[in-house]
């Protein structure tokens, strides 16, 4: 969602109570449906004046320490909330369609993807050199540079900087890296207030939920859900789910906090080695507020965000917003290079498992990811499960291949939450072979016995049957007659996971095998029935 | 040219008419087609679940059965993709590599190897939605996937265009996965079924009477989904249409 930076006086906004009967609140002043940079609003109810059916927001996966995430269970609860599921699917499919239009508007699109992939491969293969170059140039620009081996060290460093300056509040723009580090949770115990300035991320912060998507963090929520969160946390009208009203209320509530903040923080989309610059791409301008308003600014940077030179930035900028949202570029592309007069600037370069991943033969290219979310938008499983069903910082296809590098046991189930259809690989702007890595992870996890014993046992049994023709023939015969003989209630029991949502296939009179034996071994051809 | 006919396990057990149509269709072109009698499966259920060691004996059996042929043809993009890309649990001898290289899916065999230009016996005067199996589409390149900014082509639609009376209708999300996904269909049944419901509804809204595919596995799933939610669609394998089934 996008805050309306240029919106006029409040009385010009269309409020449901002043709008004409039949007017949908999510239409703009020109009568057209609001088309935000990051999504198109959609009416939940076809008849806005009718009492809309409310539906409780389905919550994410149950986290039980290190135990494997049950994504299927959480997805089933998401599917049990059809209004949420439908809105989620349609919003994200809309982004996929816009992505196609934008991508197909550039004749050299596929060459751009190749080029971006090669630049990333080159940079990652020479990462030590580029990191040193980046650090040297940043220091020359007057930036304090810190190195964090993991998330905990990142949090300690940032906390230390804030303490040294006596900061009581920190405004920050959205950063998946700080989510990965558990930064907000850590800060909750320090007495320093953290205020998210990205609208979607702010909604998630106020609701005490993780982002469900790397670009549109609250995309799993409906306007009703947002209205409920704002009513509880900011005292807005719980019955008013008008998008303008909600965005404006948040803005009025958060602006004073931004203006009074002691420190600001952003993530980083691209870190340019030759200039020591951090580049952020946003649609709300909130990274600029976070970086430029307070006198103390901190930028958290994953070490894989490096690109060699400023000339390479254009390649990625052309791909990023088109892949993410179908727009040619984000509203704001901000370059942070040196502290302003009288202010202080810090970079925290974070490893948190990246060096180790760089050494993984089959999985290192996942470090090319520029966090555009295109793989999530196109993923048919993600669109029907919701990002929170993955129980991890990174959800959807890219999450399936990154998450196990953080915790192999906890995220051992995730690579199985995929049909391996390959659409993710085709939309990836840096050409990560996502679905092939999902396949490769399954092998690694099975070999290390990180898949359920039952599943592995079933596969062992299947392998034994399928490698012995006589045993296999006996099993096929048994399956045939069992299907014919069993009454419907026996086949559709709770243990029959096929029959739960689908009818069983018809069982033919005869297998191909026995047809062939009967008709061809005796040389008596028949025609197709 | 000696052709080894590979009939995938679920075709053998649930859709024998697809195996019969494939055999007859190949024979119409004067080919010498044999069905190795001890065949079972390509090993995909195990490898897709990560259990490569458990697939090794099945893969070895596959190679033993099919090594003697010039080409191996199967009416399934999914199984052919497994053989070509993922039959790696056994040592990659010259024999194994040769078998993997000469295994073809029926549509691509007709289109690329035989270069068939007519099916004079085929007539199917119905509205048909084509379902691309994801392995056939993105794994063995049956057609241009909707994500790529590349010139459009489609081998299955090229072949169907040679069938008299057929009308192709296109769903709103033409190559969205139907949710079968092999063992995904039983390990993630809720999402799998929902994807199936959405897929068959999309075909139905586009006006299809029939869904046609080169893969029976996807259609078995979609058929079960359509029957469950009451979408009036019929399902038929492309081999049967090209072989001139009347419906």
Describe the protein's architecture and organization.
The complex is a heterodimer of chains A (529) and B (247). Chain A has 529 residues and is of the alpha/beta class. Helices cover 45% and strands 9% of the residues of chain A. Chain A has helices spanning 71-79, 82-104, 109-125, 127-140, 151-164, 176-180, 183-187, 199-206, 223-234, 243-260, 286-292, 310-325, 354-358, 374-378, 380-385, 396-406, 423-427, 434-447, 453-466, 469-485, 488-491, 512-519; strands spanning 144-148, 169-172, 193-196, 263-266, 270-272, 277-282, 296-302, 306-307, 332-336, 344-350. A 6-stranded parallel β-sheet of chain A has the order 1-10-7-4-2-3, sandwiched between helices. Chain A has a 4-stranded mixed β-sheet with strand order 8-5-6-9. In chain A, helix 16 packs parallel to helix 18. Chain A is globular, with a radius of gyration of 26 Å. Chain B is an alpha/beta fold and 247 residues long. In chain B, the strands form 2 sheets. A 4-stranded parallel β-sheet of chain B has the order 2-1-3-4, with helices on both faces. In chain B, strands 6-5-7-8 form a 4-stranded parallel β-sheet. Chain B is globular and about 50 Å long. The mean pLDDT of chain B is 96. At the A-B interface, helix 1, helix 2, helix 15, helix 17 and helix 18 of A face helix 1, helix 2, helix 3, helix 4 and helix 8 of B.
Task: Provide a short characterization of the protein structure.
The complex is a heterodimer of chains A (529) and B (247). Chain A has helices at 71-79, 82-104, 109-125, 127-140, 151-164, 176-180, 183-187, 199-206, 223-234, 243-260, 286-292, 310-325, 354-358, 374-378, 380-385, 396-406, 423-427, 434-447, 453-466, 469-485, 488-491, 512-519, and strands spanning 144-148, 169-172, 193-196, 263-266, 270-272, 277-282, 296-302, 306-307, 332-336, 344-350.
